[in-house]
Write a structure and sequence with these properties.
Distance between the termini: 30 Å
Strand order of the largest sheet: 1-5-6
Number of domains: 1
Radius of gyration: 28 Å
Number of strands: 6
Structural class: alpha+beta
Strand content: 15-25%
Largest sheet: 3 strands, antiparallel
Shape: elongated
Amino acid sequence: MRFLFIHATLILLAANIYGQGLADTIHIKRGYGVSFYQKNRKLSPKSLLNIMASNPEAYKEMKYAKGKSDAAGVCGFIGGFFIGWPIGTAIGGGDPEWSLAAIGALFVVVSIPLSADYKKHTIRAVDIYNSGLKDIGYQEVELRLGVTMNGIGLKLNY
């Protein structure tokens, strides 16, 4: 019995006890571009906008960023099509219209700063959202064997 009590006490002293979990923050992962994750789930601009609806300031920033993302996607698509059409024509043996490819390149160049602006504003929106989350009580609770007011005993610090 004494053996069991000593081992149980040692296990309790070595274990970390946590109150509640962390808030549902959005994490930013940088690599080839920027990705946003919440609970190990990758978030799209639309889902980011839906999540941030509870924080008006972050929602406003994310709505602006999503507009930039949509504009960059449209410009990139149009540019890719305009570049691809003359290349496909040239491969097929026809007479390509290279001015169309130049216009496509212009659209692609326009999409680059729009994408950079999306990234900047989305990171700002995520920072605003994360700072607005209430700390839901993440607190490390520690159980120790130590001196108490009545002698030696277990102390629960939180």
